[in-house]
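It would be a great kindness if you could assist me with a short task in structural biology. The matter concerns a single protein, recorded as an amino acid sequence and a row of backbone structure tokens. Could you please explain, in whatever detail you think fit, how the structure tokens follow from the sequence? Thank you for your consideration; the sequence and its tokens are set out here:
___
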Amino acid sequence: LHSFPTRRSSDLKNMINLNTESNSSLLQQVQQKQESIFEKLASGKKVNSAADGAAAQQIIDRLTTQVEGNRQSVANAYDGVSLTQVAEGGLSGINDDVSRIRELSVQAGNGILSDSDRQAIQAEVTQLQENISQTIEQTEFGGQSLLTNNDSIEFQVGTNAGQKIGVATQDVAASLTDVLNVDLSTAQGAEEALAVADEAAEFVGAARADLGATQNQFESAARNLTQSNVNIAAARSRIQDTDYAQATADSAAANILGQASTSVQVQANQQQGQVLRSEEHTSDSSHTGHLVCR
């Protein structure tokens, strides 16, 4: 007589247990999703590890490498600009001294000058020559002399091998030997000094032009790298950065789902308790009935 209620209670209990397990699994999924959303909101990145997207993480790493490489290349390019400016500044000073020597050479060609007058002019020329030599020795950048050796100083201005710009340096003193030995103490010396000064001025002008062209090359490379870096960083941002509007909406939806799951879990627990109490009551009634029959 009492088997039917017992079987029905058992079926109901099994159904509640099944629903409870299903809801518990859903609640765990919701909690995991909420944790993932909180991580994205806190870090500002929707891809924080390869687990969030293996392909996306690989692309982000590659773009990050390119961005950092470009940033350093821009710094290198501006170092190149600074170096060429220092070298060109030194040559500019030498050019002024050579121009003054030529001017004095013209003055020394004046026939009314006495030997003592020419000696006074030569004294100034000697000072100018010493100034040229001093400028050649002291013009350096980062400890490297720029006007004493025939060499090339190279700068990496790209993320790939071979993307370099070289600054050609020259042994300026060797090319200005004649002007550094000009003697205006005689009329003949003054005559020869004009041609020597012209050659020196032409050499210095050509060297300055080369440095100016190299400086423009560095500046152009820096501008291109900067623009490229902006575009690459923007592409990385689209892949990596969190869409706060979407993440906030997802968080709100997950909160609602989590609250609903919790509410269902509470109801299931209450129903399970009612079933257990019903079983206990049925068992007690059955036991009492057996006692009465006896």
